[in-house]
Q: What sequence folds into this?
């Protein structure tokens, strides 16, 4: 369909035509069996497979006034790639279940496919969309499943392996996406709370970076396998805010994670509580040279009353964006 | 949460509490790493993995007046298990992204989890839900990804392997789910087209079987590996109607599939056009003994003008339920 008008609604096209439009933008895959059969077949480095699934929903997870199709495709890929990376694994394929209102334009769908591909090419070269599903829905929904492989003979890096004495380190942004979300909520909503288009000209350069960090995060995917090879004892991706996720890691490991506020930059509150950057939080035995991109932000202590402390003091705030808790039903 | 009132809406519970309620009903998994980390890790029979994803959406794919939570969980599992089976593979795990309106009751969610588990236990013993994702949405959405393994050294069975002279065979129901859908559409909708509750007492025994076939299909999952071991040359699951799917198989294989109407029972029109039973359609070299459950329904010819004929005559009707084409926006 080289000449289709991008404004054409998908329900005036056949499912085959919509699929062809998407596949063209995804480019050739690398699977033994790719799209077009009942299922895909992938060859992995060994007989273990890493699988994770995460969904973006119009309303709680994104607003179409803020996110382009390209942003959404890239974000849907990035958040899933980060979960694979956080196991110390290399992402090899994405599977995308796309449910769209019938009036969605084919141009938007093509942009979404391009965003998926761009994020794979940029963050996890070699990983491609190798299958998916198209259906109609009143609510635009992008459900992505990511599949990864481990280095043969190397164990996955779990949340539960941190030991007292370990260094706590992070790779990637913390608080940037939250700063971007605050800008969007404060300045790009109408009086009823619905999202309105972002005016780039009204943003300072650093504000623009923050908004981009929210709409199109770039987690350090390759650093997942690097951390595993460097002997990370525990790892997870920070999706719900550093306090919340570090607390989970501490609890899973049966230790106390102590973060040092002075390592978290000038906006340490936002670094502690903001989510959605998908940085990699990892622990390493003391004395290990941290892999490139990781920086020390604390240390692991014997389990105390709290699984998380900041500068030695219990830290019990919630942090992060929780669609269960925080979504008010507003759209845009 | 042993004592939670089943009517409690999920948005009055924490995400952790909802998850605990689900996991309790799913039972223990068999993964190297199961729910609770960033991703699951599974051990497979060899270094190839089979992956497929399929979504059920409230509106186009189901009506809550007709389907219980248990039915929906079981159907979401079954349709994905069938796609794995159709590759000649054995399903080992499901990953379930569940997006729910905030007012969904915890009882419904628990029933859905039970349905997922029941379908796995019944249709694909050993397969379990090993991970997933919970989020809020205006539209109830169940996106399932199924993961399977192949017998070591055995190739997946593709759609493209049918050769002239092969037998065409099927395993499982054809037309039953469509008969059930017709009953639901004809007799259990209000004047505006919205679904209303099914009155079991108003159904004859055979009608009840048909309605169950629509709401809770039971595809012959184990017959997928059996067909592969018996040398199936091509295979796919019949989700969109026999005419549509047999045509796809013919086209992918570069042959003409000729079906024999007399083999399709008294309601051969519905058998030809009805979808959603998820029977396994396969081809075998002439003279092969068909594996248990498969019955001959036609033969493979040299490619003619049409990839599908019935009793030698071109068959060009559409068939099947297509949410793109057929959903009128009605709910219930």
A:
């Amino acid at each position: 369909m080289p000449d289709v008008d991008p404004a054409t609604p998908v329900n005036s096209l056949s499912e085959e035509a919509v699929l062809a439009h998407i596949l063209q933008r995804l480019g050739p895959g690398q699977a033994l069996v790719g799209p077009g059969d009942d299922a895909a077949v992938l060859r992995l480095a060994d007989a273990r497979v890493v699988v994770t699934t995460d969904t973006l929903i119009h309303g709680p997870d994104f607003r179409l006034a803020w996110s382009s199709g390209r942003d959404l495709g890239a974000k849907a890929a990035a958040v899933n790639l980060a979960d694979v990376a956080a196991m110390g694994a290399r992402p090899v394929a994405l599977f995308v279940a796309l449910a769209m209102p019938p009036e969605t334009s084919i141009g938007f769908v093509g942009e979404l496919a391009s965003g998926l591909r761009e994020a794979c090419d940029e963050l996890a070269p070699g990983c491609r969309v190798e299958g998916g599903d198209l259906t109609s829905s009143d609510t635009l929904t992008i459900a992505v499943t990511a599949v990864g492989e481990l280095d043969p003979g190397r164990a996955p890096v779990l949340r539960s392996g941190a030991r007292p004495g370990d260094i706590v380190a992070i790779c990637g942004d913390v608080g940037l996406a939250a700063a971007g979300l605050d800008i969007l909520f404060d300045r790009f909503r109408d009086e009823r709370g619905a999202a309105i288009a972002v005016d780039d000209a009204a943003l300072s350069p650093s504000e623009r970076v923050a908004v981009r960090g929210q709409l199109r995060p770039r987690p350090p995917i390759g650093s997942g396998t690097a951390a595993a090879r460097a002997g990370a004892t525990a790892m997870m991706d920070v999706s719900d805010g550093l306090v919340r996720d570090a607390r989970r890691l501490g609890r899973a490991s049966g230790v106390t994670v102590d973060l040092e506020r002075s390592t978290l930059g000038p906006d340490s509150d936002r670094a502690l509580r903001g989510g959605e950057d998908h940085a990699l939080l990892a622990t390493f035995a003391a004395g290990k040279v941290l892999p490139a991109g990781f920086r020390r932000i604390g240390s692991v202590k014997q389990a105390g009353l709290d699984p998380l402390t900041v500068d030695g003091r219990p830290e019990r705030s919630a942090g992060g964006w929780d669609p269960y808790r925080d979504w008010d039903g507003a759209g845009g």
